[in-house]
Structures are given as C-alpha cells and as structure tokens.
Amino acid sequence: MNTTKTVNYEKLAAQLDSVKADVKSKLGEQDAKYIRRVIVCQRVFEWSGRILLMLGFIQPVLWLVGVLSLATAKILDNMEIGHNVMHGQYDWMNDKYINSRSYEWDIACDGASWNRVHNYEHHTYTNIIGKDRDFGYGLLRLSNDFRWRIKNLWQFVTYLLLSVLFQWGVSYHEMAAERVFFGKKKDDRDYKVSHSELKKRFFSKGARQLVKDYLLFPMLAGPLFLWVLTGNLAANLLRNLWTSTIIFCGHFTGEVETFNQQDCENESQGQWYYRQALGSSNIKGGNLFHVMTGHLSYQIEHHLFPDLPAKRYREIAPKVQAIFKEHGIHYNTGGFFRQYFSVVKRIVRYSFP
Amino acid sequence: MRALLNSLSKHLLHHQSWNGYWEPVVQCFKPGWREGYFRAQVKHVQVFAEQSIELIIEPEKAWPVHQAGQHIALTIQTNGRLLTRVFTIASEPQLARQQRQIRLLIRSQEIGAFTSKLTNLRTGQWLNISEPKGQFVMPNTARSLIMLAGGSGITPFIAMLKSIPADSKQTITLLYYAKPNSHWLKDELEQLKQSLRNFDYHLLERSKDGDATTWLTTNAHKHWLVCGPAALYKQAAALAKQLNTPIDSEHFSAVPAAVVTSDKHELTLTHQGKTFTIDNQQTLLTHLQANKQPVTVGCGMGICHQCQCVKKQGIVRDIRTGELSDSSEQLIQLCISQPVSDVELSA
C-alpha cells in the first residue's frame, strides 16, 4: 500500500461506516418501488424490441429501433437489475425473485459462478495482483506488476476483441477457465465449487444463451427467422461493447492503483476502504446515463458499499468525495470521454515494456 | 400448462417462473399481486383494549375456503419489506363463503416488527395470504368435546363454534385461560351460549382458578381439543396419555424470546435437519464450521454473500451494525449473523 501518505484509517472507516448506516436506515418502500419500476421498463423494452425486430420486413428502420430497444433491455437486465440484485443490494426486501440467490441474467455467464468470483475474489481482494483476477482479466497487461510478453504488443486488438465478445469473456473468465480447463493450480486457494460443476454451468448456461438467441427466438418468428437472428446478434454486440466500456472505465483508467498480497494481510476496515477507493474510478453523467451503467459510473461508491442499492450512490457520492478530500485521497472521476481515453492510453502504454 | 410456461420462461427469459417474470408488470394493474400467494383486501382494522387487533380481510375469489380451526400465513409489505406470520382464522367458513370475509385476531403485544405494522394498514389496501393449512379442525366424533384454550389460542375455537349448526346435539365445554382482564371476545362467547343449545364456557385465570388438571380429569371420557402455548399443551397431552383420552391439539411457541445480552447463554441451531447446541457469542458460520456442517465460505466479513442462506425462523443480530433481524423467513449472511434466539436454517 502507498506508504508515503499517512491516512487515519480508523477515522476514515468510522466516517464511511456512518455514511453507510445513514443510507441503510433510509432504505425502504422507495427503493423497492424503484427496482420494480426498472424491471417493468426492462420488460417493456425487451418485448417492444422483440416485436419490432420482426416488423423489419415491413420497414427496416423498425428493425433498427428493435435492436436498440432490445439492447437497452439487455443492458438494464445485466447492469441495473442483474449486477445489483446479485450483489444482494435488494435482499432486505425478502422478495422471492428479487434477491441474490435466485436472480439469473440474460448473459452467457452463469449467475452463481459470477456471484462467486465477482463478489468474493474481485470485491474482497480488489486490485491485489495475484488475488483479483479481474485486473486485466489475464489477457491484458495493465501495470508493471506483470512481466512484459510479446503478446502484449497487440493487446489493443485483444482488448477490442474482448469488448466485442464480452459476455463470453466474462463467462470464461468468471469460471476461472484457465484453471478449470488447463489445470493451472494455485495451492493457496480454497475452491468453492468443483471444477466439473463449473464446467457444467459454463456449458449449460452458454448453450442455453446460444440456443435462445440464435435458434429459439428466431424460430418463433417463423419466416422472419433471419430478421430476429441478426437483430439478436446486433443487440448482444451493442450490449457487449457498452458493458465492457463502462467496466473498463471503472477499473482501468490511468490513475487506478494496484496492490501486493502483503499489503492486505491483516488489513483493517479502514485500509480495505482505502484500497477500494484507489482501485476504482467514476464517470460523470446524467441520471439516465447512470441508470444505463447500472450506477457503475459510481464505481468508487460501489466498491466501498457493494450491497447498498445502487441508485443511492448518487446521494452518497458528494459525502464520499468530501471525506476523501479531508484525508487527501484522490477521488478519481471525470467525463466519459476523458476516462475512456485514459483507459485506451493505459492499454497502449503497457503494450510496451 | 403452467409447467410449459415455466419451462419456456427458463429457456427464453432466464427466469425460473413465468409468473415471476411478469410479477412487477402485473403489479402495476393488480396491486399486491404475487406469485404463489393469494391476494386479500383489508376491509377493517380495529385495535381492542385486550391487547388484540381485529383484522377483517376479503380474500380473492380463487382462495379455497378454510375449515374452521385452520390457519393461514399472512404476508404484508411494510416499508418495502415483505414480512410473514401465521395466524389462525377466527371466523367461520360460512362467512367466507357468503360474504368473502375472514377475520384474524392478533395479539398486539408481540415484540418485533410485525404487529405494530398491522395497525398502520388502511382499508382497501392489498396484502397476501396463503391457502388455509393445518389439521386442527372439528374431530369426526359423536363424543362430547372439551375445548381448552390458552390466550390467543381461543381463535380456532371461535371459528369452530360459529361453524356448527344451532341444533347440534354434541355437548361442548370451553375452558378459556387468559391473563386477568385479557379474555377476548366475551360478548361473542355469550351470544354463542345463547344460540347453541349444548354449549357452555368458563373464563379462567391461572392465578385464581389454578391449572386445568381438575377440569380435565373429571372430563376424561370426552374428546379434548387443546390450543395454546406449549406449556398448556404439554400438560394436557401428558394427562391424556395417562387417562387414555383422545386429544387433538395445536400449540404455538410464542415468538422466540430475543435476549439481547452480552452474557453467554445456550441456544439451539437447526441446519439440514440436524440440531446443535450453540452459544450466543459467535457467528452462525463459526458454529456451523465447528460442527463440521457443509457450508460455503467466502470473505468472512459480509461483503461477498457466499455464505448466504435462508433462515426459516429465529432472530439474529448483524455483528457489524447490531441490527436485529425479523423472526420469520429471511436471507441472512452466516458470517455476520450472531444468534439471539434459537435459529432454524433451511437445508
């Protein structure tokens, strides 16, 4: 951890804990109504999209609107609903379906596998090299913590490909595929789920998605098979590009720091908060933009309080920023293009030794 | 049909249930609509002096009418949270059939979040109920009956008494124990005595009248029905065994007493059908691991939700905030939950 700066970790923890407690005491009807309303919107976008895709044969513009509508539905499902519900943000509602155990999302990655790797490895060990496999996803070299290899030379192309196929990237990655398929083992790791179980989930969820998007839904359209197939393909592509871009902007901007395993041994709550703060970056934007990113545009707040209902990050952000300022901690935020440019620069910079 | 829709939903909509997928949409048109529950509308809420709340609700048409003595699970949404409790229906099936109304009588002194929320219910509001459940109904016998009620255990007997025809030949005696000045529905019992030819009742207090032993032993030839706290039931059951008397019963343990104290004391924990004795000092996760139960372990600090499981009943405390849980079914994280009462976890 950065040793040049001395942060009063106890005070930091107390302040952030009180921000959290304050929001927790306010959670209630408003939040429950909100998430149900987002689900209703998602259903409306999904079905308008699916119907419009088929009407493409009358007027191709309708197909285009359908693609946009379906992509919006998938983005809402993956980000504002799926990601957040699976984080347990709405578990307090006691709803049979809106909770982290039963939610499943419209993406190739199996929800339970994601929940395990993402919530456990990524959120507990954020940006600790060797523990948080999300840092660079084992594909990209994004800091000097990794040895330079020849394949890093073309990692910008790798990044573009990853964005295009992001749902498969996430799925393959969250299963820890390199371990499951190629037997790379880390002895200190405690395996929560057996490899064969992970493999089964990868293939069954992945296959289900392929069959659904490229066979069942097109077949239901009968003679309009191709309109629906290409529409689904385009909607998935848009969703992949969007989610990948938002996630990269939240984690791999130029100033995001990395940590060593020694840094986090016997870490206090305050030190954990501090690491979360330096490991994420925010994107500025309007409310609609925030909803479409699943409020991951508030990546810092999300990493500090992963299980608070995400819409609440909006009201927390100014308080968090003020606390950071008091402790001299950098609050990494900026407009979309600034943050995205910073990501691109980082990917390109570490392409070279 | 339903299985087909659910299978379609699983394959096309990545949702385990077709109705569940549409639930938030349907709720826009039918407030309170929930898959797997019946809807009911609040008709009347009244708070009585004898620490009871009377709730009259109108179940939707599809609700299968109860038999007198049965109970339902009542689910209300309060400040965004769904809470469920079980209550015996305190009205006769005829009322449900003719006027589509059922009545619940609820003790209002219960600690915990639920009953205080009931008083906030407004007429016209929607809530959810389960189908009627339970085997505690009028026995199929010509023998005379002894009904032994303790406290709010009077409710199934009211439903039964109101359901029998006025000219019934069966002799029925009700022994109703309650704390001084807290007998419910005295007027209704008096009316029943007037209208039913062979019915009589006695309002009893333990401190004044002693326990039920004498009453029961002198009526050993009758069929006993018992509803009340566990202690009352245990005593009656032991006597029935001794005297070889037929007995039907329904007993409830009061909401588990939450003892918020740092002093060490013993509790029980039920997990996957096995029961362990634990203390209130450590988290549930620590106890389960100590007892070598298979549990998924994650960060151990309440972040990752890997150790989450369903608590069927019991009260736990969040060790981070000190917040106490509700006593009914909820999702909890084992690593940050400290038992405060006896706890039962689902398999």
TrEMBL record, chain A:
Taxonomic superkingdom: Bacteria
Keyword Transport: no
Gene Ontology terms for molecular function: oxidoreductase activity, acting on paired donors, with oxidation of a pair of donors resulting in the reduction of molecular oxygen to two molecules of water
Transmembrane portions of the chain: 51-71, 153-170, 214-235
Record key words, sorted: Membrane, Transmembrane, Transmembrane helix
Residues of the signal peptide: none
Protein name: Fatty acid desaturase
Native organism: Pseudoalteromonas lipolytica
TrEMBL record, chain B:
Organism, as annotated: Pseudoalteromonas lipolytica
Cofactor: [2Fe-2S] cluster
Ranges where the FAD-binding FR-type domain occurs: 35-139
Keywords: Ubiquinone
Pfam families associated with the record: FAD_binding_6, Fer2, NAD_binding_1
Protein name: FAD-binding FR-type domain-containing protein
InterPro entries for the chain: 2Fe-2S_ferredoxin-like_sf, 2Fe-2S_ferredoxin-type, Beta-grasp_dom_sf, Cbr1-like_FAD-bd_dom, FAD-bd_FR_type, Flavoprot_Pyr_Nucl_cyt_Rdtase, FNR_nucleotide-bd, MRET
CDD domains: fer2 (cd00207)
Highest taxon, organism lineage: Bacteria
GO molecular function, one term: oxidoreductase activity
The keyword Cell inner membrane is assigned to this record: no
Coiled-coil regions listed in the entry: none
